Amino acid sequence: xxxxxxxxxxxxxxxxxxxxxxxxxxxxxxxxxxxxxxxxxxxxxxxxxxxxxxxxxxxxxxxxxxxxxxxxxxxxxxxxxxxxxxxxxxxxxxxxxxxxxxxxxxxxxxxxxxxxxxxxxxxxxxxxxxxxxxxxxxxxxxxxxxxxxxxxxxxxxxxxxxxxxxxxxxxxxxxxxxxxxxxxxxxxxxxxxxxxxxxxxxxxxxxxxxxxxxxxxxxxxxxxxxxxxxxxxxxxxxxxxxxxxxxxxxxxxxxxxxxxxxxxxxxxxxxxxxxxxxxxxxxxxxxx
Amino acid sequence: xxxxxxxxxxxxxxxxxxxxxxxxxxxxxxxxxxxxxxxxxxxxxxxxxxxxxxxxxxxxxxxxxxxxxxxxxxxxxxxxxxxxxxxxxxxxxxxxxxxxxxxxxxxxxxxxxxxxxxxxxxxxxxxxxxxxxxxxxxxxxxxxxxxxxxxxxxxxxxxxxxxxxxxxxxxxxxxxxxxxxxxxxxxxxxxxxxxxxxxxxxxxxxxxxxxxxxxxxxxxxxxxxxxxxxxxxxxxxxxxxxxxxxxxxxxxxxxxxxxxxxxxxxxxxxxxxxxxxxxxxxxxxxxx
Lengths: 288, 288
Hints:
A: 2 domains; B: Rossmann fold; Alpha-Beta Plaits
């Protein structure tokens, strides 16, 4: 079984547009949305949720004020500024390490499991999908990504599918690192802007650090020809293939408003470019 | 006054809004700018800071003296992040999982654990005209953005206007960026993805008791659902930035559009006045 990941570094470059299109172009596969704190793939694929499981990726300190003697040991021990001068626990900052509970001589602090989010197993008209919902403001996005990826892989094995297509999250931090684990091939979507290029370089470096081979897709390539050639130069210098160029196409937004993928919505422009990219991805998968 | 520019969805225009707001306000106010999108710091592309110097950001990770370690396993058991594994005759530390809380060295009865500082990124400080500019940079391959943001935010002063450019999403780095803010300025685009992720951002800001306002970027694409939502929820729409190819081209070249369209400076100043009124509704009447 192969796993391909779509990432971008910079947000809003078109990851989900690409993955939702691949969903309708690819044959047997399982889809997986690992952008757990702003998951959007379901808005296009309208999944029917078959199973929703609670996910706890960590703990949180809870104080029993009646036992607290305000000795201040917890305040001194916490390295995350999660206990204030009044010895109240700031649950937004608490990382669940347990130092405060350990140092408290009165046993006033206990560590309790936190509901970090949910993992969902769903059916769509283009196959099964595993996705997640991170509770607003929770830690553990990386752990939830790992959970979703494991479930997607297991489901693909059960269904006898040869492919898992993963929609990743922006950035280079823990959820992205978790999404790169065990992946065969990463498609990095960028745009011809100064920021797009800067973020592309960072995420390509990350992907190489984790020994995942990247390939580049330039979205809205007709916005700035100068920046496209800078991207080309960078790609050539680092021996990374550019496997597609997608033109700016106002149908992309129209398709999104209709809740359809661009390849279902129209045939030319961005749709045509994405079909071509998918053909190249399929060839690439055969090589791996 | 601390204003954090945030968004659930990536690529909606956080950096554009934050940078242009900071430039417009800097003509008549003392402004500091903090790029909290430490996984993809792009604000510097637009603000081109000068005289930058950098300070490393470190976390304390355990080092085991195997000559005194008794392999009792207490540290492994205590660690909530699975960052230490004890075997019969050795102990392994996984620095990328360690949050640097220090619990392992506290629980060790053999005094076998000391700590060493590990660099996970840096905070750079420079200036753009009269703006004090800070940017955090998470080293590629490091998972945890929060300590960098937390360190950088210690530079925030009460008397100045602080504009914080947040990462996308709703997970812990966003929470750390919003923490202590007087106002969350949420940037979205008028599409189903924009709306879905805006709802998440509003939820997070409200849980943190931070007043919110919305900027709709690329106004004119998509549909009216964002505006309908804002009206229903009583969320003020404070600015609409049209979907304009000229603005997109300036962005692609790293040029803040207030530098080319002078009338937008006034609009960003009005935006700030409205934010001030929302944050402190009585200020005006007291003055009068």
